[in-house]
Design goal:
The chain has one domain: MetI-like (MetI-like fold, Orthogonal Bundle). The protein is built from twelve helices and no strands. By secondary structure, it is mainly α.
């Protein structure tokens, strides 16, 4: 039989309950992305090399053994040695110093031109994809006109009209890559604008500005990030091409493409004159492309799930 409690007696305290296990807070998305990117050896090595190249460009004057135009006529076209690991040119200038100092010029043109294309192209793609109809038709037909011209030919035409120089090279390369960013952004926005969360926000009265900045653009960003990395590779190549043709930075400022143009007349007797600037271009472009491939895998939802589960 159940024993009734005695009147006036203090009831026994219930046994202490064990604390419920708390779930660990989710990792921030950017940390998860970096973690997955680090698991890709090719992308991780490419990112490290690019960081080193950027640091070399930032601290170029500190790292360069000599000035860009320090001449020694007694050392004309000397092969690589301990004193001059990359050799010297026809004026006795140290090629290693000019390659290091030329990184700042080449990367500055590449980064600024892609930044211009990113801002303008993303804005055009957002407006075309979000509003559609006549806005989409008008803006994308303008992009089709730019697409009709070969990229390098269009850049040469713009620089030829405005004149040679780094500023005009940035503008020319940026205009060439605006249609690419516009198309990539538009394609992403067309898929995002019909999602349930976007329609729910619109149904409760969210403004177009809020929809674009809070919902559409953040969810359309992954393809744009990948395209940025790939475009940086082509921008460095385009800057080298314009400099090689004499339409980029002016002499005596060092630039990788300009060094290739200066060394082509001595390629039979001084192979190092063109090999080392060419290697700098190849390594930079290759690393940007490999990093872009890694970012594409990490930011793609299906690939991201496979990588998070340990598969590829």
């Amino acid at each position: 039989m159940t024993q009734l409690p005695t009147p006036g007696a203090t009831p026994a305290a219930p046994p202490p309950s064990e604390p419920l296990p708390t779930a660990a807070p989710p990792r921030p998305r950017w940390r998860e992305t970096l973690g997955l990117l680090a698991r890709n050896p090719t992308a991780a090595v490419s990112a490290v090399v690019l960081v080193l190249i950027v640091l070399m460009a930032v601290f170029d004057e500190t790292l360069a053994p000599d000035g860009p135009n320090d001449q020694d006529p007694s050392l004309q076209l000397q092969p690589p040695s301990w004193d001059h690991p990359f050799g010297t040119d026809e004026f006795g200038r140290d090629i290693l110093s000019r390659v290091v100092l030329g990184a700042a010029t080449s990367l500055r043109v590449g980064f600024l031109s892609v930044a211009f294309a990113l801002v303008v192209g993303t804005l055009i793609g957002l407006l075309a994809g979000f509003y559609g109809r006549w806005v989409d038709d008008t803006l994308m037909r303008l992009m089709d006109v730019l697409f009709a011209f070969p990229a390098v030919l269009l850049a040469i035409a713009i620089v030829a009209i405005r004149g040679a120089g780094p500023a005009n090279a940035i503008l020319a390369i940026g205009i060439v890559y605006v249609p690419i960013f516009a198309r990539v952004t538009r394609a992403s926005v067309l898929g995002v604008r019909e999602e349930v969360y976007v329609r729910a926000s619109r149904s409760v009265g969210a403004s177009d500005w809020r929809l674009i900045t809070r919902h559409v653009l953040p969810n359309a960003a992954p393809p744009i990030i990948v395209q940025t990395s790939i475009s940086l590779a082509f921008a460095v190549l385009a800057e080298a091409a314009l400099s090689f043709l004499g339409l980029g930075p002016r002499r005596p400022n060092p630039s990788w493409g300009l060094m290739l143009a200066d060394g082509r007349g001595f390629i039979d007797q001084a192979w190092w004159y063109t090999v080392f600037p060419g290697l700098a271009i190849v390594v930079t472009v290759l690393c940007f492309n490999l990093l872009g491939d890694g970012l594409r895998d990490v930011l793609d939802p299906r690939q991201r799930t496979l990588m998070a589960g340990g598969g590829r």
